[in-house]
Amino acid sequence: MSAITVTADAYALPLLHAAKYPHEQVCGVLLGEVTPQGAIHLKTGIPLFHHWTSLTPMLEVALRQADLYAAGKQLHVVGWYQANADERDSNLHETAIRVANTIRKNAGQAVVFNVNNRRLVNLEDMAQENPIVPYVYENNAWVGVKNPFSGKSSVTLTYDETYAKVRGMISSAKYNQIYDFDDHLDSVEHDWLAYPNSSSK
What we know:
- It is a single chain.
- It is built from six helices and eight strands.
- The chain is an alpha/beta fold.
- The protein has one domain: Cytidine Deaminase, domain 2, CATH 3.40.140.10.
- It has an eight-stranded mixed sheet.
- α1 (8-20) runs parallel beside α5 (162-171).
- The radius of gyration is 15 Å and the shape is globular.
């Protein structure tokens, strides 16, 4: 499995998005780079939907806009994230897999972050009970990475204080500064491309 590095921004966004809409299915894209050796460097992300359940023309529009935004930042769409509406549901659904396969085809590699909503309730021990489960494509299937973001994992964080920073952002309700494409469609002054940086690390 190729190495995957994750900035605080890329790690925080799925959790902030899920915290803002705890009873909705949320999703978005992860932006970064893929090296010639196949390593993925996740830099940031874009929140897309909190009313999304299937492939729709609006998803295609949002993905095209995300591609253009990423290109302007000299980045690429290299991943997908989702949090299911039911906290008991930690499955990676078929619609998410289809989007992830498209991203992988376009970028050469891809990763999916699946948010475990139950673990969002208590973030005190994120290292042991990580709320994000990365999925990678191996042997013709998307498989969850065991013990991610640990010293033994090929999926690592670039900033040592990421967990503390995310806990602070959620406890101070920074997720209210997150607007997704659904929000933008409801009210155009909501800038869905202006995800606030949690860290430059």
